Amino acid sequence: MSVTSGSGSARRLLDPRQWPIAWRAPIILAVFMLLVAAGISKVVLSKLNETQTRHFAQLSDAYLEGLSTALIPHVIRRDPWEAFDILDRAGERYFGMNADLTVVTLADGRVLAASDPLRFPMNAPGPNGAPVGQDAMDPAIDPASDPASEANGSPIDNTGDLVWITRELRELDLNLGTIHALVDVSHYKEEQRQTLIGLIVFNAALTLLLAVIGWWLVRRSLAPLHLVTDRLAQSRDGRLAPFPDAMIPAADTEVGRAVDSYNKAAAAIAEREALLQRLAQEERAALIGRYASTMAHEVNNPLGGLFNAVRMIQRHGEDRAIREKAAHLIERGLANIGNVVKASLVMWRGRSEGCRLSSSDFDDLRYIVESETERRDLVLDWSIGIEQSCPIASQPVRQIALNLLLNACHASSPGNRVACHAWCDDGAFYLRVEDEGPGLPDEIRDMLENGPGTAIPSSRGLGIWTVARLVREHEGSIAVDPTPNTRITVRLPHVSDPALEAVA
Amino acid sequence: MSTNGQVAKAAYRPRPDSSQQGIDRRAFGLGLAGLAGTALFPLPAIAARSEVRFGLTPVFLDSDIRLIADLEAYLGARLARPVTLVKRRTYMEITALLVAGQIDAAWICGLPFIRHRDALRLVAAPVYRGAPHYRSLIITRSDTGFEEVEDLRGTIHAFSDPQSNSGKLVTQAFLAEKGETVSDFFADTFYAYGHRNVIRAVASGLAQSGSVENYVWEVMRDIEPDLIARTRVLRRSEAMGFPPVAASLQADPALVDALREALLAMPEDDRGQHILKTLRLDGFARVPSDHYDQIAGTWRMVHGAG
Questions:
Q1: Using H for helix, E for strand and C for coil, what is the string for B215-227?
Q2: Interface predicted TM-score of the whole assembly (ipTM), two decimals
Q3: Per-residue pLDDT tens for B204-260?
Q4: Distance CA A478, CA A473 (A)
Q5: A120, A127, A177, A168: which is closest to A147 by C-alpha?
Q6: N or C: which end of chain A has fewer CB within 10 A?
Q7: Could you list the residue range(s) of the whole structural domain that residue A501 is in?
Q8: How far is A183 from chain B (nearest CA, A)?
Q9: Pairwise CB contact (< 8 Å): A88 & B197
Q10: Could you tell me if B228 and B255 lie in one domain?
Q11: CATH classification at residue B169
């Protein structure tokens, strides 16, 4: 279970749509800034590389040109000492060039002199494969002569720190030899690396700063909205608590308009709630009126018998047998009237609302329901499994049961069966009402199972709305089983006796 | 090679403080290069010229303006005439100018002197470490495994100058005595035109060995110890006459005498002492012409062998 919950939380964390707006906006801003920073960094590094390559080409050209001019007379004379002397002194004069090694080869490829004769001795083969005939504007790279160098378009782009540059020595269109210089370009790469680090640090700091500012601004902008959402979250049973006047911002602001709208909605909902309450009372009064007429009818039935008995006594009062029969009739008639009167009291019992539920409460209820089932020609299946009493208020239970049973009667056709079962089990009271009618509409079923909500019920659904509201008020639940018969099971948890007394 | 101890003894007076004080290496080099000649004779080529032209060869170091100025000033004061120092890259150039009377005097090597002895007049010889003698050295890099000259066969050798006694002739003669020629013994040779350059060529590895004079190598051991530490001596020759100051026959004899006196009097003059200190010489001595007969014999032997 926990695993499922954990994976669900992880999914929510990974789904950007689930993130709070206060986080989403700065994260989007940060991602955007990173993209912009990456683009700017690429442009800067590209320009830097371009500048370095041009600078290196110009420096190499000047270096090789200077060496070439000085070397050519000595290369013509094949004077190794003078060539060496020039290369040796050039290392100091062209310090900025960072030439690690310079070699002068003759036209046949043999070394005339090198700045480091131990690496390239006189008369030995020159740097292998070093291309000739290219000047420093397009410095040639010799991959074979030194493992540190690699073939590539720009010497700065090579992974190695040393690259070969070459310049052919020509005089009167004669190839006299070649200058090869192994140049250290690590400082260019170090410059690029420092620039890259600077860009990363600066852009990261800027992105972080903007993200924090964005988070703060969004959070500040959403703060009034949070007031409204917090109020909505705190509302229970669809009742909204309006903002007190002291908390209402100026009406000409966006937040002020939002709070004003919220307060109007809260007032409308409260008004509708009151209206529904009144409707429920009126429904109850109508119910009482309907059963008052029923009671009158029930009382009127034995009245004829009673009058006959009275006339029998008046006419044949001396006859003991007739007198006793008349008295028996009167007794039965009065008993029927008494039952009717007793049943009428079911709907209005005054102080009895806070009493514990007992089986007698259902006995009273039965008289009312039976009159309805008889009138509709239905079969009533009555089963009450309460032995003593249940620690639960009787009045709401009676109203719930009566509404559900009357609704079941209304939904049933003549000859159908209507069942009422009640019992206590496992710390709760259960009431189950069944009928063989066409079933509950979806909205009614939803109302029963999920609470009354804020929707205004139709006049026919008012009794069910009352049931849903009462069950929710008493922290109970309703289960609806639509097949094969419509079966509605209400579960109401027991309450402690002090609580019951408090209600009473 | 011992030679003219009498002459040296008679003419040379040692100067106790002339020696091991620190000097500028460039000044030292130019000083050596500079002592090369003065015109003394009022012959037509130079009679009308009032200035004295003194030739220098780059013995082993580059020119030093300060030493040149000191030398010009000293000689000018002693000769009571303006003195101009003439520098050339090779011994041959200076020798040619001297023989042709284009310059009055010059500090030249012993070999050009004996080859052109008929056209020159010996003025004086420097005194180094108590005698007007020096030696030729064959040096190699310190880190090579060469133990004798024979090990150098097939390698590259650096000579100082084609007209240098210590920088070529002595090595050439040494090989000739063994029946070898330079071209056959060494794989290749080149001239560095300066003893210091030979030392640099050997120290850097450009050449595996080189021929230099001991005076330059020993003085540079103090001036540039790091450079000298990268070389070691493989062979040391016997002592020979130190490269002399010679005058053109066309130079005024009075000027030659005055020049000789000026050189010999250097230890007695403050400026002269400074010059000698820079050059790390004890002074100058009057030496006879046969002081260089040994070099002449070597030349004849090599010439005959070659």
A1: HHHHHHHHHCHHH
A2: 0.76
A3: 999 999 999 999 999 899 889 999 999 999 999 999 999 999 999 999 999 999 999
A4: 12
A5: A127
A6: N
A7: 349-504
A8: 20
A9: no
A10: no
A11: 3.40.190.10
